[in-house]
Amino acid sequence: MSQAKTGLRYQRLLLKLSGEALMGKNAYGIDMSVCMRLARDIKEVVDAGVKIGVVVGGGNIFRGLAGAAKGMDRATADYMGMLATVMNALAFQNALEQSKVEARVLSAIPMPTVCEAYVRAKALHHFEAGRVVIFAAGTGNPYFTTDTTAALRAIEMGCNALAKATQVDGVYSDDPKRNPAAVRYDRLTHAEVLARDLKVMDGAAIALARDNNLPVIVFSIEETGNILKVLKGEARMTLIEGAG
Prior knowledge:
The chain has 244 residues and is of the alpha/beta class. It has one domain (3-241): Carbamate kinase (3-Layer(aba) Sandwich). The protein is built from 9 helices and 11 strands. Helix 2 (32-47) links the parallel strand 1 (12-17) and strand 2. The longest helix has 25 residues, at 74-98.
């Protein structure tokens, strides 16, 4: 289905949600009212005919780097972080299903009594069937962030773009919450993000997106209905793409 027919810029999207996005105003854990709001936003996108996958972080439950900083072995801490993403993925699947959206959790760490194991062909099958695919447990390897997982899965699924949901409406030259003079960018190239060391995603994720010509969209998840607005080009956002 073409853009002209749908009015949408992208027909296949990978959405990256941080674990913190799921905890709402709480100090930690999962706020199911926030999950339900995000699930309704995704339902709008699915109803518009878009194929969508989701990568969820685990920072609301456990963050590997923080655990390592406190003296834990980094690999062990990262595995614990991956398990946290599975918990978030299951909660979000439940929210989607309550919103009458078919969803599947696929984990890079096999746990057959809990969810399906990640196999690319299986994930593609769910995509084509119109199900929301929630990718859990990162890449299954320590030392890789869920940002890198999102870029990797977006490429594997043939997505047209990777949308990173944040608490601000794009990429800024500095933290806009701490620095009111921070400049917001409408467009950047992958190379500019890396050269300026802009902290939007980790370097490996941006480099992977650059090398595979994958556009990255940074937008605010705080506004209801914003995912569909991103697809229509109506949201305030920063578009990161190749120089050509």
